[in-house]
Amino acid sequence: MRRTRLAGAIAAVLALGLAASACTGPQVNEEFNDTEALAAMEEFLAESIAELEDFPGFQSRSISLEDCRHGVDRNEVLEGHDTVHLQYVFPEASWEDPLVREAYPEALAEFWEAQGHEVEIDRDDSGAVSRVSAVREDGVGLYYRVLGQVVIDASLGGGPECVEADPDFSAPEPLGGVEPDHDSVPEGGHDDGG
User: What's the pTM?
Assistant: First the structure.
C-alpha cells in the first residue's frame, strides 16, 4: 500500500512537470511570417479607423520585433522566430477630446462586434471605456487604450505569439499621416514601395 502511494505521488509529480513544460513551449502562429503579420495588423487597423468620424490621424507609429521567448521564466529563445508589436498614438491635442476618448472606443466596439470578432470592453469606475479590444479568427488583435494618452496597439493572439522571422522584413507606409520622423521601424524594415 505504501509503495502504491509513493508510486502514485511520483507519477503525479512527473505528470505535473510534463504539463508545465508543455505549457511553457513557444506559441507559434503558422499563418504568418513577421512581414505578413504586420501587414494583417495594418489592414485590420485601416478598416477600423475608416469607421471613425472626423478621424484626427495619428501622431506616431512604433513597430518592434522581439525575440520569441518561452519557458517557465521566458528565458529560452526560439531561433528564426519573433513577435511583432505595433502601436499608433493619437495626436496629443486629441487626448482629451470626447470624440477620441469616449465615442471612438464605443464605435469600434460596435463595429468589431458587427464584424463577428471577439470583443472585450474594460470600463473604469465612472463607466467610461478604458480599453476595448478585438481579436479576429486569424489571431490578429487590436487594443484601443484610453490612458493619459490614447493609443491603438496590435499583436497576434492577444500576447506574445511568435511567427517565423522574414529575412526581408518590411513595413508598409504608416497610416493616419504619421510623419517619417515619428515612425519607428526596425532597421532595414521600411518598404521602398516596390
Answer: 0.80
